[in-house]
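Question: Now follow the chain.
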Amino acid sequence: MGLLERLRKEWFIAGIALVIAAARLEPAVGVKGGPLKPEITVTYIAVSAIFFNSGLSLKTEELTSALMHVKLHLFVQIFTLVFFPTAIWLFLQLLSITPINEWLLKGLQTVGCMPPPVSSAVILTKAVGGNEAAAIFNSAFGSFLLGSSSSVPFTSIFSQLFMTVVVPLIIGQIVRRYIKDWLERKKPPFGTISSCVLLMIIYTTFCDTFANPNIDLDKFSLIVIVFIIFSVQMSFMFLTFLFSTRDDSGFTPADTVAIVFCSTHKSLTLGIPMLKIVFAGYEHLSLISVPLLIYHPAQILLGSLLVPTIKSWMVSRQKALKLTRQPKVPVKV
């Protein structure tokens, strides 16, 4: 396989490397308040585009079916809001006897209590070809559920979720009704569009990360925290994969993809305001926020790198299941 052909096939992975390198070279371009204005272009325009794209590409019956998939929703929400924080708390009891800064450990505990993000889990699920409708419901519902029970202003959360998730999704569904035949005939590259939006999110996320003065830790602490965060993400992704692929789980391969991303991703958009309210007045607030500031780009980077692998598994698994369900043709003697 030639280099150009390889790049065409792996363009998304190459794109990740390029946008991270660009963010490292000149982070000021993509930070909040910078020329790209990510607080508007990403938070509102890009996220709205993602869900408008989802509204266009998803059949109405798929959305309805996802809404009724109670078992999947319970799995994701219980893992995210009960198992995840409990497991992190137990893990931190072991880490408390190490020389790691106690405020960084408190920051890790708060990461465990965060809801899933609205955008990244949905984009990654769509990029793989998983149960996108289920990912949309659980991402929005998790943020809405935890946000409404926390100190973060409920009206602010509800209005942002409504305007950037619900409204674009409904508009996309309405437009789909009028151009349904054209969509089925032309088959627009919805997955590619979402992947391009994800590259923009990765770029602005790493611009914020590289420009953030709060992550100015000593190298040992920074390396340890990054290692712990990646280990936690990999471990929990593997756990959710194991649980959701058991023979008696009742989940399809597409369901598993949504479960893996929605159960292990954490929201920075909701997390930072919560930290500022809960730990208001703490002189170590910057240290407490570091794990979440690292977790956010780490989950996007790790998830993006795993897209080809998970997609390959899902396709092969779907083919295998299809073959096992085909009726056996009797052999004539």
Notes: The longest helix spans residues 285-325.
